[in-house]
Amino acid sequence: MKRYLFAAAALTAMISGPALAADVGVSINVGEPGFYGRIDLGDVSPPQLIYRRPVVIERVPGGSARQPIYLHVPPGHEKNWREHCHQYNACGQPVYFVRDKWYRDVYVTHYREQNRGAREQDDHRGGQRDEGHDRNHDDRDH
Asked: How do the domains of the chain map onto residue ranges?
């Protein structure tokens, strides 16, 4: 009987082990290498595009024109856009696909430079707030 219980426990561990490992996620934000999704150009240089004209899969009823968006997608998604547009919530949207090289070499660099100042300000304010907290509210003195 113990042999069967051990075998059942081992089987359960083998089955649930990979399932637990599959729950691990990675978060990648816009402006980082490996990000895929919508990008806002702002004041960055004009993007290098995969296609000169925007791609639209589903026309919007009523013919109302929507502004095109710019997407950075994994290789091959633009070729089979009908299969992938739902992942980006962009099936009824005109889409320009930006080249990966432009995204990595131009957009990521520009995005980091533009956001460096905001991160440094947040770090600076956080440091001041922490110092004031330590000086005024030291729990060891109470």
From this structure: 28-141
